[in-house]
Records
---
Amino acid sequence: MNKSELIDAIAADAGISKAAAKLALESFLGNVGATLKKGGRVSLVGFGSWSVSKRAAREGRNPQTGKTIKIAAKNVVKFKAGAELEGSVN
């Protein structure tokens, strides 16, 4: 399912227009992103939680040349599925 299919499904399930569903989805995504950017955590009970983790700098290899390269440290987003979501796919 892509973003437009998700908007269509939200609109149909909630009985709202596609424009309203698109605004709701974009608001959700924007607020999740803003919270994570501030170092916060977003939890939806039963669905899952998003958090930010720091990945340390490390050395890697260029697969074409075999040379060692330095990979910079960065923040990564992690998602942990909730019990209901895990149960729905098994």
---
Amino acid sequence: MIVAFSVTPLGVGEDVGEYVADAVRVVRESGLPNRTDAMFTSVEGEWDEVMDVVRRAVAAVEARAPRVSLVLKADIRPGVTDGLTSKVETVERHLSE
């Protein structure tokens, strides 16, 4: 499964990059395939391991912010691996035709 999620601290002002970095650090240290862009961090793996990473990423932000917002989107497709790469490659292939 692939989960794209965004963790936003609330009540800490406009500059939230430091807090978001705490969440991304948890994802990167998990060892699961992941990507971060301007809006979301995507992580790929089995249900329990991915949801544990999301939980810990939220907890990392929650430890420093009075309130946390979580947006999550999941692609649950058993048997598919390397979806983070293969899905993008498919789109790029169609664009090059």
---
Amino acid sequence: MPKPFPKEFRDDVVAIALRRESSFAQIAKDLEISESCVQRWVKIAEVDGGRRPGVSSSEAAENRELRKRVKLLEQEVEILRRAAAYLSQANLSGPKGSTRS
């Protein structure tokens, strides 16, 4: 995976692109980056700025964190479920060393 560009650089590229003085292809060529990078960064900026529908960067980050939290909680529930089943089985078999008549 290529090294990410600094945020300041991306912001500058977006500002240049949004002025619409040059095409995305020309901007990309001048700055030695891919045209798809310029297009993606502009799209993200427009979504974050509310000029285009979609999920903003902050919402996407929040969604990622929430998915991680849900996964962790689901793992914890599974552990507790298994522990409860194990303890339930232990109680059904009675205390060790005792014999039933």
